[in-house]
Design brief:
Number of strands: 6
Structural class: alpha/beta
Strand content: 5-15%
CATH topology of the largest domain: Rossmann fold
Distance between the termini: 23 Å
CATH class of the largest domain: Alpha Beta
Shape: elongated
Number of domains: 2
CATH architecture of the largest domain: 3-Layer(aba) Sandwich
């Protein structure tokens, strides 16, 4: 199977920033998020050797989720002042790597990832790995799509297939959305059903499989739980809608567009030097050789 790696740019950018102490160049440019993101990107090239690679980004424009529920993500703290000033510089580096980057007004990066992963399933002999720090992506896991989540900062990752998702969450990937519909998601300010927590949500889904089936068998529930579920029906279905990652975002898919290409080594090296990423320049050299068209034999990476 050939590999298509899709990176949730904002999630990994945030993860990198919070995983490393702040450090700056001699000119005062803060670079920890850039450095951490690139370290992880090098690890992906080394360990996964993807034939295809793409990065999805959020935009500042409101999404349909904000239209559906104006309090969506309203409780999130504003980002640190020195985080997003690093983003243009990171994208400048990524352009020298010739990695396609996708973003779309009205949709989150998750929706782009979900759409691309879904469309990739029509290709022969291609499996998709979604790299993200967000467990929302568990709902996208199936026989052809895996989710990779960094742990311990950016130094280690866990790869999730359907069995691993079930072991982690207690439910299957196709139940993740209904789980959020029931118990909500504090990080995104998704309300769910008031009074229903993660354990109760898992218990209900183990018994009834999906949200519709819970409401079809409401008469089987008793006491306070039944009242909570009954009173919270509107909130449950609204939460289900905004927790669902879209697989039909209006973005075209051409697998060859995401094929890994030679990097623009001289431009990349110049930026690395400006950023004082001296330890990464050797990795850059090895990566540049790895991405050369194979000759007599494939060059090993690192």
């Amino acid at each position: 199977m050939k590999k298509l790696v899709l990176i949730d740019g904002n999630a990994i950018f945030h993860r990198a920033y919070h995983s490393l102490p702040p450090f700056t160049t001699t000119n005062g440019e803060v670079t920890n998020a850039i450095y951490g993101f690139l370290r992880m990107l090098f690890d992906i090239y080394k360990k996964e050797k993807p034939e295809y690679l793409g990065i999805a980004w959020d935009r500042k424009a409101p999404t349909y989720r904000h239209t559906e529920f104006k309090e969506y993500k309203a409780t999130r703290k504003p980002p640190p002042d020195d985080l997003y000033p690093q983003l243009p510089r990171l994208k400048e580096v990524l352009k020298t790597f010739n990695i396609p980057m996708e973003e779309l007004d009205g949709y989150e990066a998750d929706d782009i990832l979900g759409t691309l992963a879904f469309k990739a399933e029509s290709e022969d002999n291609v499996e998709t790995i979604i790299v993200t720090g967000d467990k929302d992506a568990f709902q996208l896991v199936d026989d052809r799509t895996w989710v990779m989540i960094p742990v311990k900062g950016i130094s280690e990752v866990i790869m999730y297939n359907a069995a691993a998702v079930k072991e982690k969450m207690g439910i299957a990937p196709d139940q993740i959305v209904d789980y959020k519909a029931l118990c909500g998601d504090a990080s995104d300010n998704i309300p769910g059903v008031p009074g229903i927590g993660p354990k109760a949500a898992c218990d209900l889904l183990k018994q009834y499989k999906h949200l519709d089936n819970i409401y079809q068998h409401l008469d089987e529930l008793t006491g306070a739980r039944r009242k909570k579920i009954e009173d919270g029906k509107e909130s449950a279905y609204m939460s289900q809608k905004i927790a669902t990652i879209q697989k039909d975002a209006p973005i075209e898919f051409n697998l060859d567009h995401y094929r890994t290409h030679r990097i623009d080594y001289e431009k990349a090296k110049k930026i690395f030097t400006e950023l004082e990423f001296h330890s990464l320049i050797k990795k850059l050299e090895d990566l540049e050789r790895f991405l050369e068209p194979p000759k007599a034999e494939q060059t090993s990476l690192f």
